[in-house]
Amino acid sequence: MSGRAKQPPPQFLQMPTWKNNLKIVLGITGGIAAYKAPELVRAFVKTGCEVEVVLTEDGERFVSPMALSTLAGRRIWRQRDFLSDEYGWRIPHISLADWADVVVVAPCTAETLANTVQGRGKELLGSLLLATRAPVLFCPAMNVNMLANTATSENIRILKSRGYAIVDPDSGDLACGYEGKGRLPSPVVLLEEMWRAACPKKELQGKHVLVTAGPTWEYLDPVRFLSNPSTGKMGVAMARAAWYRGASVTLVLGPVSLTNLSGFEVVRVVSAEEMKEAVLSRFGEMEYIVKAAAVGDYRPAFYTEEKIKRSGSDTLRIDLIQNTDIAATLGERKKIGQVLIGFAAESHDLLKNASEKIRKKNLDFVVANDITAPAAGFGADTNAVRILGADGSSMEYAGTKEDVAEEIWNTVLGENRPS
Ligand SMILES: Cc1cc2nc3c(=O)[nH]c(=O)nc-3n(C[C@H](O)[C@H](O)[C@H](O)COP(=O)(O)O)c2cc1C
To answer: What pLDDT is recorded for position 416?
Structure first.
């Protein structure tokens, strides 16, 4: 065997974060979607969170307490525990209210929404909701007409205005035989919504963030294109981390088959020109623009309507023309108050090229990564980056793409600046 022995990729330590360390109270109420609640308990537990389940009296008619306690790995709390003398001074609704980092009510009935608006405490869950200072996420699920009823929509509006988080129900086939809005979203979606509600950082509340992610495809005939191996994971991690912090996020996404994009406005594009149009038409209303897409610098000069066939010659010449440099165009149009964050995937002269990119394109930050490094760059779940600021600052991070995205936002929002 010849050549250098292959080095194992660096192992990034999986640190406990705010995401996998949460204490969740899950309130389950008496809607038909309660049959999905055991799956939600499982999803919460699997992420490393602790879950205390509180089941309403009517909720017990829809889902088995034994299934819930088995999946939660602990006893659950029922209405009969509420006005019981068994717990002495450890009053369940107060101790659970204080223990929780976040309270999730899923599914949430029209009845529980109405009771919460009125501040009713007859149920253990109702009193707990009155007593807690933790963020609360309601996940309404019901018949389409119950949801559209003025009383319910007004209750949802009031709860939102009081600062509660409410998940928009899905549309589709409903258990009652109707079709329409009212379904409980999947556990994956509820998990993300729970993280958003629980996120301790809220600096991007009310801000508009645009993120580009993924590759572009530059077609030369109906079946062939020029592209690159970008998977869009780093950009989606940036979008997700901004969304957790309260931002409204628009994700302009190249052709990748990523799922779990709930919560974002997703604009699908294929070519660099389409990405440019999508970004420029939305740029004006954005406060933060993250250019994480791997946009093709060149496209074929000519598109051939018919599939290119083999010819007698051994070689085929394809002329390329340059695409518009989207980041540079944004840099020229940037207004006061807009923050432009670029990515520089480099294979050589990383720092020199990244610093030049900041200057030439009028960026505020550039996130540079060496695509030849092991366990970093295209396709990997981990990344190792250096964040350079227009003010000359420089920070280095390595970890999962989610962790790196958190650190990039900490840097952009000023938290990582040495004091
Ligand atoms: C079969 C059946 C299914 C029901 N499904 C729902 C539902 O999906 N959503 C809802 O808001 N209410 C539903 N209800 C009505 C609630 O069970 C009722 O309002 C109950 O009092 C809710 O109490 P709770 O919110 O304290 O658990 C259903 C009732 C029945 C009989």
So the answer is: 67
pLDDT at 417: 59
CA distances from 19 to 24, 47, 191, 196, 414 (A): 11, 8, 10, 10, 21
Q: Are residues 178 and 218 in the same domain?
A: no
What value, to the nearest 5°, has the Cα angle with vertex 86 and ends 85 and 92?
Answer: 85
Nearest alpha carbon, ligand 1 atom 19: 111
* Ligand 1 midpoint to CA 141 (Å): 9
pTM: 0.91
Tokens of 113: 């929404």
Q: What spacing in Å lies between the alpha carbon of 120 and ligand 1's midpoint?
A: 17
In a domain, 1, yes or no: no
176 is catalytic: yes
pLDDT in tens, 18-62: 888 899 999 999 999 999 999 999 999 999 999 999 999 999 999
Q: Which of 198, 225, 241 is the C-terminal boundary of a domain?
A: 198
Range(s) of the domain holding residue 249: 208-303+319-412
User: Which of 164, 198, 232 delimits the end of a domain?
Assistant: 198
* Distance from Cα 256 to the centre of ligand 1, integer Å: 40
The CB of 142 under 6 Å from ligand 1? The reply is yes
Q: Is the pLDDT of residue 305 over 80?
A: yes
For a mutational test of ligand 1's pocket, the pick from 57, 111, 138, 184, i.e. the residue with the most ligand atoms closer than 8 A to its C-beta, is 111
Q: Which numbered atom of ligand 1 lies nearest the CA of 29?
A: 27
User: What single-letter amino acid sits at 170?
Assistant: D
Query: How many CA atoms, within 13 angstroms, populate the side-chain half-sphere of residue 215?
Result: 18
At residue 11, does pLDDT exceed 50? no
Residue-wise pLDDT for 193-233, tens only, equals 999 999 999 999 999 999 999 999 999 999 999 999 999 99
Q: What are the residues whose beta carbons fall under 8 Å from the beta carbon of 270, sequence distance 6 or more?
A: 216, 217, 219, 254, 255
CB 385 within 8 A of CB 408: yes
78-119: pLDDT as tens digits:
999 998 887 777 899 999 999 999 999 999 999 999 999 999
| Pocket of ligand 1 contains residue 382 by CB under 6 Å | no
What is the atom index within ligand 1 of the atom nearest the CA of 112?
Answer: 25
Q: Give the model's pLDDT for residue 87.
A: 76
- For residue 58, give the ligand 1 atom closest to its CA: 27
